[in-house]
Design goal:
It is found in: Endomembrane system. The chain has about 475 residues and is mainly alpha-helical. It has one domain. It contains 19 helices and six strands. Strands 1-6 form a two-stranded antiparallel ribbon. It has a two-stranded antiparallel ribbon with strand order 2-3. The chain has a two-stranded antiparallel ribbon with strand order 4-5. Helix 8 packs parallel to helix 16. The longest helix has 30 residues. The protein is globular. It starts with a helix and ends with a helix.
């Protein structure tokens, strides 16, 4: 039954590979259950209240429970409806924008209402076929460039989250090696151990290399923390332990099971924001969320499709409409649950690297998230440093597609180059895609090859110009 429904054999996979891939994807993105509460749970809204409870104090457990629940339900939906190895959870970057740029101007319920509104609009765009049509209007080689750029982006995420690369905070160079140019602390050793172990297992063609690497690195981290009591990287807002663990401190939990509180569900006010800020400001916020969500997911879907070998010769993903529909519903569901927009995660590529090719992997990932609502203390054992080697390896796997780009055609080569480098340099998939689209359109017009440009690509490039100029436009209108 599983084989028939998910087309496991037809896609050259096995149930065991799908299960392994689903578990690996979960391990590489489980951090969101702990991180999302820290981002939106410690920020106050325009009324000076925290999200959850009575608003008088942070309620991180409630946010964590809702984060895991919605991620689990939507990821299972992606597997069952779209049969694609793609997991969803609260979007990083979007949640920071919500906490800092939106909720600070209104109540949390009002801010979540804008998220729901954006999700409903993008769902309509999918149902009308517009979102899928835009995806098909993009040249094949630009889709490959998007995939490669995301590969570099995900590798940088792994290096930054592990502490191997860190922000300098001053000077002309924004990032540096380790702490001030030096690798320090046991967590870095755990990262290096996990990375080299995974590479060795891959070279030996051992099945489950990424999963084994994460598990062994976690065991090593727990042993090191037990012996040396290293503690977290961030001790207080103004105090940092450069030799500490990045997020989760890998200690053996005193309890494994905890009862979740889902009281945050339904915490939104659909049009409440229009009474707190001007209609123009609200519309610009929704437009910004819409464009970021629209193209982040398109890029992620393209990258996963290429890595899994699930694209046709034009670079299109079969049943893209179903994938985009579930993702659009996820955006609205995240707002309705009070935890910010949910979106597709590029960390799903780690599961594909482990062999996942079908939606069964997503079902496994989703079930792991649902278990996390009760097993949050156990998930908190896995530190960044144990999970991030998988992201670096996946970045390498996705980088190998670069050979398919025609570097002799400047109309493709320059946009591909900008797409690839700007994703990691700006820490944004949307910026890379936008720069690639706009530069491709400009170069083709200069070359006198305007007829090669799809009308939808011209439209989207114009919208991206508005996106890039949102701040001065907003200031001018104000």
């Amino acid at each position: 039954m599983l084989d028939s429904y998910f087309k496991i054999t037809a896609r050259g996979s096995t149930v065991a590979r799908e299960v392994r891939g689903g578990v690996v994807t979960f391990f590489t993105m489980a951090y969101i259950v702990a991180l999302n509460p820290l981002i939106i749970g410690l920020a106050k809204d325009g009324d000076g209240k925290f999200l959850g409870g009575d608003g008088s104090h942070p309620n991180l457990a409630m946010i964590a429970a809702a984060t895991a629940l919605i991620a689990g339900v939507l990821t299972i939906l992606m597997g069952v409806v779209a049969n694609f190895p793609l997991a969803l959870a609260t979007g990083l970057g979007l949640n920071t924008f919500v906490a800092v740029g939106i909720a600070s101007k209104m109540t949390w319920a009002d801010a979540m209402g804008l998220i729901v509104l954006e999700g409903l609009i993008i769902t309509v765009l999918v149902l009308t076929g517009f979102r899928t049509a835009v995806f098909r209007a993009v040249p094949t080689q630009l889709k490959i460039a998007i995939s490669v750029g995301i590969g570099l982006f995900i590798a940088l995420i792994g290096l930054v989250d592990s502490g191997f690369v860190r922000r300098t905070g001053s000077g002309p160079v924004p990032v540096t090696l380790g702490d001030g140019g030096t690798l320090v602390g046991w967590p870095i050793i755990v990262f290096a151990f996990g990375l080299f172990l995974t590479v060795a297992l891959m070279v030996k063609k051992v099945k489950g290399a990424l999963l084994i690497g994460i598990a062994c690195a976690t065991v090593a981290a727990v042993a090191i923390e037990s012996a040396f009591k290293i503690g977290p990287n961030f001790i207080a807002p103004d105090k940092v332990n450069p030799k500490g663990w990045g997020l989760n401190v890998p200690t053996i939990p005193t309890k494994v099971v905890a009862s979740p509180d889902f009281g945050l569900l339904g915490h939104f006010n659909l049009f409440g924001s229009f009474g707190k800020i001007t209609a123009v400001s609200a519309i610009l916020i929704v437009f910004t969320l819409l464009l970021a969500d629209f193209f982040d997911t398109m890029g992620t879907m393209t990258a996963i499709g290429h890595e899994a070998g699930l694209v046709d010769r034009d670079g299109n993903v079969p049943d893209a409409g179903r994938i985009l529909l579930v993702d659009s519903i996820a955006a609205a569901a995240g707002g309705a649950a009070g935890i910010s927009s949910n979106t597709s995660y590029i960390e799903s590529a780690s599961g594909v690297g482990e062999g996942a090719r079908t939606g069964l992997a997503s079902v496994v990932t989703g079930l792991c998230f649902l278990l996390t609502t009760f097993l949050a203390p156990l998930v908190a054992v896995i530190p960044y440093e144990a999970a991030t080697p998988a992201l670096v390896i996946v970045g390498f796997l996705m980088m190998t597609q670069i050979k398919s780009i025609d570097w002799e055609d400047l109309g493709i080569a320059i946009p591909a180059f900008l797409t690839i480098i700007l994703m990691p340099f700006t820490y944004s998939i949307s910026v890379g895609i936008g720069a690639g689209f706009v530069s491709h359109v400009v170069i083709r017009i200069v070359q006198g090859r305007r007829k090669e440009l799809h009308p939808l690509l011209l439209l989207i490039s114009g919208l991206f110009m508005v996106y890039f100029l949102t701040s001065p436009i907003n200031a001018w209108l104000s």
